[in-house]
Amino acid sequence: KKSAFCFYCFLFMQPRAENYGIEAFTRNGFKSWKDGPEVFNQHVGKHDSAHNKSRQHYEDFKNQRQNLPHVFDRGSQKQEEEHKARLLIILGIVNFLILQALAFRGHDETTSSMNKGNFKELLDLYLGKRGEVIAHVKVFCLVLHVSFHILHLLLISFSCYIMH
């Protein structure tokens, strides 16, 4: 299970990403450790790579009021709203589970299971009330199936945020 995922590409993956290993770093997880440094460098790529664009979108999202491209670029406003909606849903659920000291995963997360775990059940409950974000979260659920490592990183980051 020792897999690596790209945090930036996972959250802000570009629609037509043409970069080496984008699937491995967002859905499946990177597992070929003997070629690790070389593949990581290829994934990051040059200045205009999909990874660097995703990283820039993350930085822009983090610093919205300080970012000049955010002020001038009205074409990506819809995309930013979609990313923000996705993050707010996920962080709200993560915040609730952390504050309640509840486990994220269930023992049986198959589609036929009656209880798929706290995170997925809360996500389903929330989606029942907010139909306009279903498309975004369905993509997240596909990625979530194999990317609990990223969820663990979110958990650590969010717990540090709460502690400070």
UniProtKB/TrEMBL annotation:
It comes from Aegilops tauschii subsp. strangulata (Goatgrass). InterPro entries: DUF4371. Residues 24-137 form the DUF4371 domain. Pfam families: DUF4371. The chain crosses the membrane at residues 87-104, 133-162. It comes from the Eukaryota. Keywords: Membrane, Transmembrane, Transmembrane helix. This is DUF4371 domain-containing protein.
